[in-house]
Amino acid sequence: MSKFSSMNPHFPGLDLLPDKARTSVDAALKARDKRRLDEQASRESKASKVAEDCQRQLEKSLGRENYKSLRKFMHAESLGLRDLLQPPSGLKTNFATANAARKRKANAFLRKLQIDGDRLAKIGKHYREAIANALALPKEKIVDGYGMAGNLKKWESLSPHHKRALPWGVLIDIDLADPHRWFLFRPPFFGFNFGFLPVNSSNFVVEREHILHPAAGLVGVVGTMDNGDADNADYASVDAFTEIAFGFEVPVAGVVEVLIDAQSTICSHDIHTEEEWGWSESSTGQTNYLKFDVLHPNVPEPSYATMSSFTHAAEGDSTVHRENLTRGQHYFAHLFSSGPVPRGEHVVITAGTRSLDVSGTDDVEIHSRSHFEWFINSVEVRIAP
Fold first, then answer.
1. How many domains does the chain have?
2. Is 44 inside any structural domain?
3. In the prediction, which pLDDT does 223 show?
4. Is the pTM higher than 0.90?
């Protein structure tokens, strides 16, 4: 179950560009929409197949009648626990005590059916690994991002503009005749773009929030995956991006090279799990990227730098909060376009952030939330020598 939210480009001044440039941007956006639709359909098909395979493995391993009896028992006990919480008597019910009693009954039922809980756990582990692969990004241009503080020499070596901190506004003299010189773009920006591509089984609710202030260079994504009524072989992924945009006139044909200086304002990974039966497990991953794109038909896909990644495999109840990045600190991405652009053309360049969160669960309630916000302090652009 999923729906596609297409890109929503807004590029003030686009109507002032030459007709050829407007046509190129339009063609590139349509190609990206199609690519993302195809990507969504492929990931959804793979995830559904993995879930179906898990169901078949369980039936084959346990025996069809045992499997049906187990699922019937689990459904009845879930409803029974809910009944215990109904007012007025439920207001005084201790949930932890009632839930522990339910798990004891479940394990006794497994013993009655002569079912090995370890066998269920093994099948579940294989399922979670397979679903993570099914929902992962395709092979795109992904490199590692950098923390400025620990990689200052590398940053200084990439551009002559870095001899002084860019916010000070002190720029060095450059050769204006050099077609491969760096062009510096800083806030305020006026163009922007965003999109959302969810994939999820029926028990998951997947949502996102786009944070966007183009003039300030602020971009961000909040992604949530919630499964409050867990079942066997549930899955979800939230895939969303937010970006600023600006125009660039290509001085010489070639691949576009960019340096993105981004300041982290919020970087948080939050996951809460509630294990339902005593043999169930889950695995949830959250990854955030800085991204760059050139909206031109010659450039088939964006390029990405991984900035923060977190995976949480839970065998029981858990609540985890993680912040891998330091708030207020600078980070940078060094990226190249996935194709060359022709000399003399006007193109639209986008820079921002993308989050991809993936979860595979086996009778485990999941509440996943990732929150990333970045100030795009500068984007340096040149045609790679």
1. 2
2. no
3. 97
4. no
